[in-house]
Amino acid sequence: MFGVMRLTNTAQGDFIILGAYAAIASLGAVALSPWVIAALLLPLAFAFGYGLQRQVLNSTLGRDPLPSLVVTFGLSIVIQNLLLQLFSADPRSIETEGFNTQSISLPGSISVGMLPLAILAFAVAATAALQWLFNRTQLGRAFRAVSDDKEIAELMGLNAHHVYALATAVAFVLIALAGALQAMRTTVSPSDGPLLLLFAFEAVIIGGMGSFWGTLVGALLLGITQQIGFRIDPGWGIWFGHIVFLAVLLVRPQGLFPKTRG
Amino acid sequence: MTPLLEAKGLTAFYGDAQALFGIDFQLTAGEMVAVIGANGAGKSTFMKAVTGLVKTQADGIRFQGDRIGGLPPGEIVKRGIALVPEGRRLFPSLSVEENLAVGGFSKRPGPWSVERLFKLFPILAQKRAQPATSLSGGQQQMVAIGRALMSNPTLLLCDELSLGLAPIIIKEIYDALPAICAEGMTVVIVEQDVALAQQVSQRIYCFQEGRVSLQGRSGELTREQISQAYFGISAEEAPHT
Question: Is B54 within 8 Å of chain A by CB?
Answer without folding.
Answer: no
